[in-house]
UniProtKB/TrEMBL annotation:
Extent of Basic and acidic residues compositional bias: 88-98
Protein name in UniProt: DUF3261 domain-containing protein
Disordered: region residues: 72-98
InterPro entries in UniProt: DUF3261
Organism: Arenimonas terrae
Length: 300
């Protein structure tokens, strides 16, 4: 052919007039600028590739089923909002172009859950845990011996001038401390107390001097009783003379306003301290708990 051809392994450059095509370790000569059809590539059965290809093929057989479960059809035209929602703040929660997860539900939506939905259930669960821990700070309500601490039932009118306050109640017992909030209103006709935790009403009581009515949440532990709440409240705020007159024999309540003591014979059963105008501290020695009351007056 005019030129001597040598195997490609013995030369560094391929002659331009011809085209050398390697096919299965052979050299073939083609016409200049003519592309020869390539022989089909034959895969070797052995090696790592031979072991991985069947596994990949088996996985690909499941891909159409998985894809069909993800995409059922075309999304509706209103899936992406075109106009902001006038009933919500003009930020990115309902702006056009935000992806929705479902009907009228934005991916970044922060709308508050309805009272009967999951949000309320979570709040009730948090309040239940908090009140359960609070119940652990109080001793069990059990019928005690005759020398058990008496529960007060003083008339609402026995508190001169009444009171209306928002209070924070801090209980300490056995090294644990729990806090709940309360609204207290006392006038000549009734004592009204509402205790709530995490925005959930736990206990509501009304004492008119003869009948004590209460409304309890179904998740409220039984140790937190309206009777004990009313008695501690009157022990802290009602006048010394009124409390002492209501006690059974062998019980006495005395002391100045800054430090009042409930005595049974020579035993200090309870101690009430007035730390400041807003703070009172009650220590129930027999029950071994401490109640700190931080009170802020409110206008009824």
């Amino acid at each position: 052919m005019g030129q001597e051809l040598r195997p490609a392994g013995q030369c560094r450059r391929v002659p331009r007039p011809g085209v050398l095509v390697r096919r299965h370790h052979r050299l073939q000569v083609g016409q200049p600028r003519q592309r020869l059809p390539a022989a089909p590539v034959r895969w070797r059965d052995g090696g790592l590739g031979g072991r991985l290809r069947p596994a990949a093929a088996r996985r690909r057989r499941h891909l159409p089923l998985f894809r069909g479960g993800l995409v059922r059809g075309r999304l509706p035209e209103d899936h992406l909002p075109s106009q902001p929602d006038p009933g919500h703040p003009p930020h990115d929660l309902f702006d056009p172009g935000r992806l929705r997860l479902g009907h009228e539900q934005s991916l970044r939506r922060r709308e508050q859950a309805p009272p009967g939905g999951a949000g309320a259930a979570v709040l009730r669960l948090i309040a239940l845990v908090l009140l359960a821990a609070l119940a652990g700070c109080l001793p069990p309500a059990r019928p005690g011996p005759p020398d058990e601490v008496p529960l007060l039932r003083l008339a609402p009118s026995a508190l001169p001038g009444g009171m209306a306050a928002q209070q924070r109640l801090s209980f300490e017992h056995g090294g644990r401390r729990q806090v709940v909030d309360a609204l207290v209103e006392v006038d000549a006709e009734a004592v009204r107390v509402v205790i709530h935790a995490q925005g959930q009403v736990a206990l509501r009581l009304d004492w008119d001097g003869s009948t004590l009515t209460q409304t309890r949440a179904d998740w409220l532990p039984p140790q937190l009783s309206a009777e004990r709440v009313l008695s501690d409240l009157q022990l802290v705020y009602w006048p010394v003379d009124a409390v002492d007159a209501a006690l059974p024999p062998a019980w006495h309540f005395s002391g100045p306003e800054q430090s009042r003591k409930l005595m049974h014979s020579d035993e200090i059963v309870a101690h009430v301290q007035r730390v400041s105008e807003q703070r009172r501290v009650l220590r129930q020695n027999r029950h071994r708990y401490m109640l700190q009351i931080d009170s802020v007056p409110v206008i009824p």
